[in-house]
Amino acid sequence: MTNINDVQLEQVIIHKVGNPTRGEELKLSANALTLNDEIVRGMLTKYFLSPFNEHEQYQFTHLSSLELNEVYQYITGIFEDPKSFVSQSALLASFLYNKSTHARVKEGELYVARFGQVPFGTEYIDAIGLFKSETKETFLKVFPHGQSWEVIAEDGVNINKLDKGCLIFKKNKEEGYVVCVVDNTNKQDTQYWVNDFLQVIRTSNSYHHTDAALGMCKLFISNELNEKFEVNKADQIDYLNKSIEYFSTKESFDLNEFATEVLHHPEVIDSFTQYKQQYEVARQVNIEDTFDIHLAAVKKQQRVFKSVLKLDKNFHIYIHGRRDLIEKGYDEMSGKHFYKIYFDEEN
């Protein structure tokens, strides 16, 4: 998240949340931080808000009723009565403690924060943040000792690496608020932060559909295409480039149009259609056949669409287009493969 210099950090409280299955305790704070130091206030604001992408939006949910989502209820209590901040934060910490029973869940500090003037599109609105620090790093502290210097080691939190976070904007309450989520630990192991504690789902919007569709295309071209059709690396890169070009130049996505313009061959198109169905089931997402393309999602995915052809450890060839100007062959005399590249000018 950018443009956070004018964000007002109104209140912060810290609770210690352990793992009950290991006998670790829940230690609740009685009061919020004083926040008298403006430097510390600015560092905390950056630590809390910088990792979020406001385009990746979620919303609170519940199998029975939204009103039964505990975090949703506690957050609503703070929004409606800021004086209940300390008591509601204790309820949040207690609920997280009860959900921290997986063997891989680490003990850590839960920060609950209340913000004002947080940028959201063209608006500035209130928000509440939940942040958990689980990873400690060792820092060296140098200090004067007489006429010399000494060094000691201290464990602390790296303010450039937020482990887990959730930012709830005071917007769309009836639909479960607008929620942004960060989870940089235990992604493959527990998902307790997203599924068990927060109980949020991705908001079905153009950013979500664009991001999911591009992610699916990349995996299909990089893995499935080669397994079924033995496509060489240069052709894979060409497919990736054409996919990004499609999303970058079109205002809306149409599955049939994309398949025809990018994949061309009927057998590849059939394989892609089947893969889409499998991908949606495996990832528990629904990618619409038509949707408006969100350029912010395209720019995000563009960073992981690699257009580099790596040849042993000697050469890297960057391919940006014109697959027809590249030829692949095999030289029997040397027993090596080769690429022949045609060009007009050398820069």
UniProtKB/TrEMBL annotation:
Any matching Pfam family: NA37
GO CC annotation terms, alphabetical: nucleoid
Xref: InterPro entries: Nucleoid_associated_NdpA
Record-given protein name: Nucleoid-associated protein
Species assigned in the record: Sediminibacterium sp. KACHI17
